[in-house]
Design brief:
By secondary structure, this protein is α/β, with parallel strands linked by helices. The chain has 14 helices and eleven strands.
């Protein structure tokens, strides 16, 4: 094995910048917005996504996903919107999975019609359903797996093969899995997206996004990105690069906590259903085992009918009832009121997002403390 090849080592060292002046052990932070342009290999500018810190972090994320190149953005939605618009023009069509992150779904429903771009949602998560939605003007397929918030799994190899047969591109939001648990490019997916606010950042103090793929793909994304803006400030780039050094350790701990918690919740009388691909009863468990290295730190569950989700969330003491996910501290929320609030009630119910649904992001706390917090909170919702 060559040095710097193991995933854990790349988390720490890939893309780091050498401190030639002081010989420090971590990457220096370059806050400049004005760089030389005479007799230099590239013109560096923050909006061009190519300052020293921006380039170093992009190399790290691309390496962890097994990609040739990457770009780092100011948010997950900046990454998603730029990647999509860079691959589309008026008259094009895209197939999306139905159970999609609410922000992405709102974006395509709101913005695509303005540019005469059409879209369809696959009826379910099967490859056949995606194939049935393809039209003569379809340019690509966009998926999330595991999905947010019901954690359905989509066959990456199957989707990649379908797209290749029709000579169209594929994009995936890999946020829920993280590069620790899933590397879609190895299965033939073209473009991988992340809300780096989540697992890549991991401490609930960074807002960022990422796009990785082949060099040709990233050049195409950059051609739009430099016009749209959306680049990430170097101070935040530096913080994100720092956070990613512990990515493997954090996600492994969250994987373990989520699996234990899923089994615990599955045994509780006050829980109607648990959504977690690590459970053998999950409809996509076998597929998840085949394409994921770990089942992730996210799960969802339905409270039994008659228990009020808001009362339950407000009664939590250790677990924070806050928006977002994937920090080292455990959080829980109602997708109906947060991540999918922009959907209609009909759309939410079609995706299984009921008033009883709780999305649970497992942190790295002791399992017995998390379980105790849930049990004391559910007592407050006794019928």
């Amino acid at each position: 094995m060559t040095p710097n090849n193991d995933f854990r080592t790349r988390c720490v060292h890939k893309g780091e910048l050498h401190d030639s002046q002081h010989q420090g052990s971590i990457s220096p932070l370059y806050m400049g917005t004005s760089y030389a342009f005479n007799d230099v290999p590239i013109n560096q500018y923050p909006r061009y996504f190519n300052t020293p810190n921006q380039r170093g972090l992009s190399q790290k994320i691309a390496s962890l996903e097994g990609a040739e190149a990457g770009l780092i953005f100011g948010s997950g939605m900046a990454a998603i919107s730029t990647a999509l618009f860079s691959h589309l023009q008026a008259g094009d069509h895209v197939v999306f999975q139905d159970d999609l992150y609410g922000g992405t779904r709102n974006f395509i429903k709101t913005e695509f019609p303005k540019y005469q771009i059409s879209f369809s949602f696959a009826k379910d998560t099967t490859v056949a359903s995606f194939e049935a939605a393809i039209r003569p003007n379809t340019q690509g397929i966009y998926i999330e797996t595991p999905s947010n918030p019901t954690l359905r799994i989509i066959d990456l190899k199957g989707i990649a093969a379908l797209a290749q047969a029709h000579q169209i591109w594929t994009m995936i939001d890999n946020t829920f899995a993280s590069p620790v648990n899933q590397n879609p490019i190895a299965f033939g997916i073209d473009v991988v997206l992340h809300s780096a606010t989540k697992y890549l950042g991991g401490h609930s103090d960074i807002c960022a996004g990422a796009v990785v793929g082949s060099q040709k793909t990233i050049d195409r994304v950059f051609s739009s990105a430099k016009n749209f803006g959306g680049s990430l400030s170097d101070a935040t780039v530096w913080l994100l690069e720092r956070s990613m050094k512990t990515l493997y350790l954090r996600v492994q701990a969250q994987n373990e906590n989520a699996l234990q918690m899923a089994h615990f919740l599955d045994q509780q009388s006050w829980v109607e259903r648990v959504y977690y691909p690590g459970l053998s009863l999950h409809p996509d468990h076998v597929l998840a085992k085949a394409q994921m290295k770990g089942f992730g730190g996210m799960l969802s569950f339905d409270l039994e009918m008659g228990r009020d989700a808001k009362t339950f969330l407000l009664a939590l003491k250790l677990i924070k009832p806050t928006m977002s996910l994937a920090g080292i501290e455990s959080t829980a929320l109602s997708p109906r009121l947060t991540s999918h609030a922009l959907l209609t009630e009909e759309e939410r119910l079609a995706q299984g997002i009921t008033p009883q649904l709780i999305r649970f992001s497992l942190g790295i706390e002791a399992m017995e403390d998390l379980q105790a917090d849930l049990l004391q909170a559910v007592e407050k919702t006794n019928q």
